[in-house]
Amino acid sequence: MKLYRTGEVARRLGISKMTVLRWIKSGKLKAYRIGKEYRVPESEVLRLLEGKIPDKVVIYARVSSRDQKEDL
């Protein structure tokens, strides 16, 4: 069983390392703690790459004047 470091998982999934850590702590991503670091099994990485966890997209737009509102 191949284990990946959190940085490797983040790079493969195109997300930040902090997101990987947050997913581990919330239970969304299974991982093993080895010393002070986490290792993620290859099966978990493949599961995420196959899209079994739905993406959530949040869009935030801030305008500073009424004139800019039309550009949205």
UniProtKB/TrEMBL annotation:
Domain Resolvase/invertase-type recombinase catalytic, residue spans: 56-72
Record-linked NCBIfam families: excise
A GO MF term: DNA strand exchange activity
Pfam families named in the record: HTH_17 (PF12728)
Organism in which the protein naturally occurs: Thermococcus paralvinellae
Protein name in UniProt: Helix-turn-helix domain-containing protein
UniProt-listed InterPro entries: DNA-bd_dom_put_sf, HTH_17, Resolv_N, SinI_DNA-bd
PROSITE patterns: RECOMBINASES_3
